[in-house]
Amino acid sequence: MLHLNRWFAERKTPLLIAGPCVLESLELALEVASVLKEAAEKAGFFYVFKSSFDKANRTSLSSFRGPGLKQGLFWLSEVKQKVGVPVTTDIHEPWQAEQVAEVVDLLQIPAFLCRQTDLLLAAGRTGRPVNLKKGQFVSPWDMRYAVEKVRAGGSEKILLTERGTTFGYRNLVVDMRSLVIMRELGVPVIFDATHSVQLPGGAEGASGGDRRFVFPLARAAMACGVDGIFMEVHPEPDRALCDGPNSLPLAEVPTILKTLSKIREVLVSCGLP
């Protein structure tokens, strides 16, 4: 599994889960994965490529959803083999879990589905590590029940990812206390720096966002002691087919990772978790 199990056992380096929001083409996926792999290695991160074969929760029926299960899994397998990195993607229905687990190293549960019992049990039964995105509507302490469902399915390798909490209409806010609270549940915690600046449905039929706040929030989260960072990244975010307004330009990521790595080094030198 390209050493992902070893990362769970040791957790010595921060995790980077990053890639385009949705799979647009194999060429784009390979480009982003290659650049991020190199940047992650230089900054001391363990890298997992992320992109979705289907975005089943898009705001509008006319929005681009992705290439679908068969084509998407083929592209992910190509990224895994040609770039040499672990890969992850979302699943939306229980029947998808087993098929997707044959290719990916980490199953991701979308935030809107983090309470779906059958989906979480199915993910756990695959034996693959599972990344649970915290719902915008769920308190950090209530994520213990989602963790219990995955464990009941059979998986002990679980990540919890913070991605902001609903704050009125079409807005999110990040409560940094949730990073500490969820870590106390005994699982690694990831901060989703790009979805946390999303403006759900704020672009009239699509979600908006403000990427200006991605880097400041990522710095704050790293200082809180998270185990890793989640980012959606695209060479040209303003032309991305999904989540462009809150995605980071690919060229900016190496510098961001270097800064986050230095924050992590300070924490370690101080003996902080």
Please characterize this protein's 3D structure.
It is a single chain. This protein is of the alpha/beta class and 273 residues long. The protein has a single domain (1-270), classed as TIM Barrel, CATH 3.20.20. It is 37% helix and 18% strand. The chain has helices at 4-10, 26-43, 69-83, 96-101, 117-125, 143-153, 177-183, 214-223, 253-269, and strands at 15-19, 46-50, 87-90, 106-109, 130-133, 158-162, 165-166, 172-173, 189-192, 198-199, 208-209, 228-234, 248-249. The strands form 3 sheets. Strands 1-2-3-4-5-6-9-12 form an 8-stranded parallel β-barrel, surrounded by 6 helices. The chain has a two-stranded antiparallel ribbon with strand order 7-8. The chain is globular and about 50 Å long. The relative contact order is 0.15.
Write the layout of secondary structure elements.
Layout: H1 4-10, E1 15-19, H2 26-43, E2 46-50, H3 69-83, E3 87-90, H4 96-101, E4 106-109, H5 117-125, E5 130-133, H6 143-153, E6 158-162, E7 165-166, E8 172-173, H7 177-183, E9 189-192, E10 198-199, E11 208-209, H8 214-223, E12 228-234, E13 248-249, H9 253-269
Parallel strand pairs: 1-2, 1-12, 2-3, 3-4, 4-5, 5-6, 6-9, 9-12, 12-13
Antiparallel strand pairs: 7-8, 10-11
Main features:
TIM Barrel, alpha/beta, 18% strand, 273 residues, 13 strands
Brief sketch in words of this structure:
The chain is an alpha/beta fold. It has one domain: Alpha-Beta Barrel (TIM Barrel).
Number of domains: 1
CATH architecture descriptor text? Alpha-Beta Barrel
Element-level helix/strand string = HEHEHEHEHEHEEEHEEEHEEH
The major beta sheet can be summarized as: 8 strands, parallel, barrel
